[in-house]
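Spend some time on the protein that follows and explain the fold to me:
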Amino acid sequence: MVPKASNRGIEMPEVKDLTMNDLEYLIEQKILEMLRDLDSTLALTDEFKKELKERLGKPSKRIPYEELLKKFGQG
C-alpha cells in the first residue's frame, strides 16, 4: 500500500488497512533504517561475520501466516 499525497500532505494508510506483506515490508524498512544508522560507527569482527554467514546459509524457520492460522484453528 503506497502513501497517498493530498492537499494536507502525505496520508499514510491505517494499520487496519495494511496487508501482512505491507506490514512486514514497513517493519523491515524501519529496521534497516535503524541498522544503517548504527552500522555507520561499528566495525564487524571476523567472528561475527563468520557466524552471520553460517546463519544465512541455514534454511529459514519462517512459517507462513496461513499455516499458523491452520495450526491454531483459525483457518
Q: What stands out?
A: Helices lie at 20-39, 46-57, 65-71. Strands lie at 4-6, 9-11.
